[in-house]
Description:
By secondary structure, the protein is an alpha/beta fold. It folds into two domains: 3-95, Up-down Bundle (Four Helix Bundle (Hemerythrin (Met), subunit A)), CATH 1.20.120; 104-271, Rossmann fold, CATH 3.40.50.10470. It contains nine helices and ten strands. The chain has helices at 3-12, 19-36, 42-50, 57-70, 76-103, 118-129, 146-156, 169-173, 198-207; strands spanning 110-113, 135-139, 160-164, 178-181, 185-187, 191-195, 212-215, 253-257, 263-266, 269-271. The strands form two sheets. A seven-stranded mixed sheet has the order 3-2-1-4-7-9-10, sandwiched between helices. Strands 5-6-8 form a three-stranded antiparallel sheet, covered by helices on one side. Strand 9 and strand 10 form a beta hairpin. The mean pLDDT is 97.
Amino acid sequence: MRQTDVVYEKIKSLEIQGAMNVAKSALVAMLKDIISFPDENPEKFLEKLSSARPNEPMLRNILRWFLKESKGLSGEALLKDLADSILEEIEKGEKEIYSLGAELIHDGMKIFTHCHSSTAVGILKEAKNQGKKFVVFTTETRPRFQGRVTAKELADSGIEVFHMVDSAAKYAIDGANMFVFGADSILPSGYLINKVGTGIFCVVASKYDVPTYCATHTLKIVTDKVDEAVEERDPKEVWMDAPSNIKIKNPAFDKVHLKYVTAFITEKGLLKDILS
Length: 276
Ligand code: RUB
């Protein structure tokens, strides 16, 4: 069985979620298939994995990076070394983002986050490791409840967490010192894409003058097109047995204008304008 097919299904079912995890797992799967099926065109693996989530440029960017650098390389060891060096480079960037983000966190802060971003969670955990005392408000993130993953991870690392339904977010944002979230895509058209809910929460945060930070690796900048349509997921996630005369909408993400972001926390530093 091809690893690209296995990982494709895991990404589709959200067993693997979050842009970083999706991209890294895709690279490992593609590497295994290139080694196991040397006669197949690796572009096929890239296409299959990319089609699992249309709003994941980091996945596309790192698979292309691997394919470009692997041209002319042969042998399992060299291919594995290349994949490891790409993963190490990404992990180095993640650590830089965590420590830069942690600098923005101070004792007594009330911080809001939405969904599950390994990057945002990494920043919060780093701040906690540095001994900072703050509280975090998290939202459920219906319909798939990724916010519970965030709440558990933060609470398990000793951070005080308040968890609430998505529609209660005003209570979290009002009086917050920071809204921090991750990103799936940064679009040349001047928008970012992140979990549905991010858009309305950014608008509310701007009304309450809450500094709003998007924590993202710059490999999430879309390089192969100007704009992207947002992924629509299975309506059954919203309402399993909905009456047939009701049409269900289930957009997985929001497209958010970059003007709502105070700054991007990236491996290249704190950037006001991530596209320049
Ligand atoms: C997850 C989500 C995350 C981004 C960034 O959505 O929107 O905020 O992917 O995550 P889903 P990370 O659960 O549908 O994948 O910082 O881990 O890359």
